[in-house]
């Protein structure tokens, strides 16, 4: 399927429909192990330029301006054998949080996305981020929590009410529990405060637990930025960098 840039523009609703039929791909933690270890077409963006590009895309999303998905068929062919994403986004699996749309309807090959409930940093996520920074040369890592996050809410109930979570859900939320515990005495917005703190915690863990990412940050090649997505307004608040 191909959309010419100056033909029929797409509204946000059209983009959502378009994404639903597979036109806007979510690049998840998996990658093609047969591809070369180092991508030849490394992005030319600096970390601050990548961040500015995400910020501008989010403004378009919030304003609901018309967007154009230009020539997806050609773009698919262009990135079929290699990729050079200019940002890595770790965010929640929540169906309402779709980075490719939230950041302005970016297309194939632009974002390297890792998602799980509660945007938790684990071994799989760290490996994915290391691959994205060292081998694909993405200059920016965004750890994005969101309003009314179910995984964070569940962790807060464990801390505040002693709720027992069955199955793997309990194990999944364990890394969030210390974050929630630290936020129990910080006012009425317990869950929302924990969402913010969890994004900061994830960003800090990436920096401290990955020697690869830490080195790239020290060299000025990579920046890590926590963020918060408001489900009601669509606005992404980029918090100060770690």
TrEMBL record:
Zn(2+) binds at residues 92, 94, 146, 149. Keywords: Lyase, Metal-binding, Zinc. Its cofactor is Zn(2+). It is an enzyme of class 4 (lyase). Binds 1 zinc ion per subunit. One of its GO terms (molecular function) is carbonate dehydratase activity. The keyword Lyase applies. It comes from Rhizobium azibense. This is carbonic anhydrase. Belongs to the beta-class carbonic anhydrase family. Its EC number is 4.2.1.1. One of its GO terms (biological process) is carbon utilization. The lineage of its organism: Bacteria, Pseudomonadati, Pseudomonadota, Alphaproteobacteria, Hyphomicrobiales. InterPro entries: Carbonic_anhydrase, Carbonic_anhydrase_CS, Carbonic_anhydrase_sf, TAT_signal, TAT_signal_bac_arc. The keyword Lyase applies. PROSITE patterns: PROK_CO2_ANHYDRASE_1 (PS00704), TAT (PS51318). Gene3D superfamilies: Carbonic anhydrase. It catalyses: hydrogencarbonate + H(+) = CO2 + H2O.
């Amino acid at each position: 399927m191909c959309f010419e840039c100056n033909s029929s523009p797409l509204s946000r609703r059209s983009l959502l429909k378009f994404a639903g039929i597979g036109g806007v791909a979510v690049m998840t933690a998996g990658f093609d192990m047969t591809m070369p270890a180092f991508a030849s077409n490394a992005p030319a963006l600096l970390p601050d330029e990548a961040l500015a590009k995400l910020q501008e895309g989010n403004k378009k999303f919030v304003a609901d301006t018309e967007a154009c998905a230009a020539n997806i068929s050609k773009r698919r062919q262009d990135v079929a054998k290699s990729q050079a994403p200019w940002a890595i986004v770790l965010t929640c699996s929540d169906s309402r949080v779709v980075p490719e749309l939230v950041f302005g309807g970016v297309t194939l090959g632009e974002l390297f996305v890792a998602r799980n409930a509660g945007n938790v940093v684990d071994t799989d996520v760290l490996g994915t981020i290391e691959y994205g920074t060292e081998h694909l040369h993405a200059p920016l890592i965004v750890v994005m929590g969101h309003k009314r996050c179910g995984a964070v809410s569940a962790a807060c109930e464990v801390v505040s009410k002693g709720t027992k979570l069955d199955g793997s859900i309990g194990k999944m939320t364990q890394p969030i529990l210390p974050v929630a515990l630290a936020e129990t005495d910080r006012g009425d917005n317990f869950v929302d405060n924990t969402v913010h703190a969890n994004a900061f915690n994830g960003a800090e863990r990436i920096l401290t637990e990955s020697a690869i990412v830490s080195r790239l940050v020290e060299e000025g090649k990579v920046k890590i930025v926590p963020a918060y997505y408001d489900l009601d307004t669509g606005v992404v608040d980029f918090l100060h960098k770690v």
